[in-house]
Write a structure and sequence with these properties.
Length: 451
């Protein structure tokens, strides 16, 4: 059945475009409805054959009058969307119907204190449409159709800008990023890029250098967030490490060296981000609790209680429980060769239990001091072929490189990213700067000197 937009739909969109002062509301609604030319968010009433109604076979429908201004509200303390809508006069039956018909698109139990919403109703107080802002970057749009409610989770429209930053580490990487006017969250991104090759908690030294080409997203709510790191280079103890973000055809995006070899290993070097190593792997160490010399088959990372702990590789959880000495610990079987252990946790991440599978980089628990421990830290251990090994000394295999069929495409992406980074550095960059969007054409004759 072909439908045409009713005058009410046109009127509603016009109202939405002028209602209120927050500019995100009309833009978000337009974004949510731009791909649907049918009547959106309008209440239909079955009246039989009515002139001017929606065309088609069978019963015809016309839109009931909708109040021109939305009711704007927010979720209060210890409140729910049900509570807020009931307080605005919406019937319990209406709310339950909406919840039931949209629960596959959005879990209404995720509604939290402080989230805001715009409610459009008809003159009878029935829901016509609802926009719930779940974050500065995301909203849920509920619309009443002819037969039932529908909901879609949308992202607030945003613009991407590209930035280059470069610095030398004298105190810490955080301090260097602050000095350059860059987001300190980039420290975590650097760990994501180089964490398989360099242990940033142990290996970085004064005088080491870095350069990054990355995205920044600015949403129409005014919210700004760090985007993706596209290209990165670190000089650590005089050795250069380069990484280019590339998404193979039909595959998952990852980071690759300049020759197309994967920067990602089968296992990460460390299970925490930027924590100090307080005790290394040793065949003879004085145990601070038992007061005897004995082997220490792990690496201790000192960190505050509650610091997230991440799985160093994909695998199957064999244990996630309390054990004398180990305290709360997680044991992960990665493959026929490797198993990893995470000891003295304060607690486990949601869903982490024996028999579940976890992914590399997935949070599995929190730093604590359970078991034989004198203070908050993580003892990280690794077994290779059933024997304890030093996890920091393992030569881990890399993931698959860029395929020969995609090397030309990869080289084009690599050169476009590097050209933008080099242009900014060659201009004498002393702070973070905005650059043009990287071109995808190959840029021949790039200089290999970066610093």
């Amino acid at each position: 059945m072909q439908r045409r937009t009713t005058p009410l739909v046109t009127g509603l969109i016009t109202v939405l475009a002028i209602a209120g002062q927050e500019p995100v509301v009309p833009r978000a609604f337009d974004h949510a409805t731009a791909r649907n030319s049918e009547a959106v968010g309008c209440l239909y009433t079955e009246l039989g054959i009515v002139a001017g109604a929606v065309e088609g076979d069978g019963p015809a429908f016309v839109a009931a009058p909708v109040k021109p201004e939305p009711v704007r509200g927010s979720i209060g303390k210890n409140s729910t969307m049900y509570d807020e809508l009931r307080a605005l006069g919406v019937s319990a039956f209406e709310i339950e119907t909406m919840r039931r018909e949209t629960k596959t698109a959005f879990d209404w139990r995720r509604v939290r204190k402080g989230q805001t919403f715009d409610l459009y109703t008809n003159e009878a107080g029935e829901i016509d449409s609802l926009i719930l802002y779940t974050s500065p970057a995301e909203f849920v749009c509920v619309r009443r159709g002819i037969e039932e409610f529908s909901a879609v989770v949308e992202q607030v429209p945003f613009e991407i800008t590209y930035h280059v930053t470069h610095g030398t580490i004298y105190d810490s990487i955080f301090a260097s990023l602050q000095e350059q006017g860059a987001e300190t969250d980039l420290a975590g991104s650097i760990d994501e890029v180089f964490g398989w090759t360099i242990d940033l908690a142990k290996d970085l030294r004064q005088g080491d250098q870095y350069a990054l080409l990355y995205e920044r997203r600015t949403y129409q709510t005014g919210y700004t967030t760090l985007g993706t790191v596209l290209a990165a280079r670190i000089v650590n103890l005089g050795k250069e490490y380069n990484a280019i973000r590339y998404e193979p055809d039909g595959g998952t995006a990852g980071y690759y060296a300049l020759d197309g070899k994967s920067m990602q290993k089968s296992m990460r070097r460390a299970p925490l981000k930027f924590s100090r190593i307080s005790s290394n792997y040793s065949s003879r160490r004085f145990h601070p609790v038992q007061r005897v010399y004995k082997p220490h088959f792990g690496v201790d990372y000192a960190a505050s209680r509650g610091t997230p702990v991440y799985a160093t590789g994909d695998g199957l959880v064999l244990a996630a429980n309390y054990q004398s000495g180990n305290g709360n610990y997680v044991r992960i079987h990665h493959n026929k060769t490797y198993e990893s252990y995470y000891l003295h946790l304060s607690g486990f991440a949601k869903g982490v239990r024996p028999g579940t599978r976890v992914s590399q980089g997935q949070m599995i628990g929190y730093v604590g001091s359970t078991g034989l421990s004198t203070g908050p830290h993580l003892c990280y251990r690794m077994k290779k072929n059933g024997h304890w090994v030093n996890p920091r000394m393992l030569d881990l295999p890399a993931k698959e490189p860029v395929s020969p069929q995609e090397l030309v495409a990869f080289n084009a992406v690599r050169d476009s990213y590097l050209s933008r980074m080099y242009e900014a550095l060659n201009d004498g960059l002393d702070r973070t700067t905005v650059v043009q969007a990287p071109a995808r054409a190959v840029s021949p004759g790039l200089s290999s000197a970066m610093f």
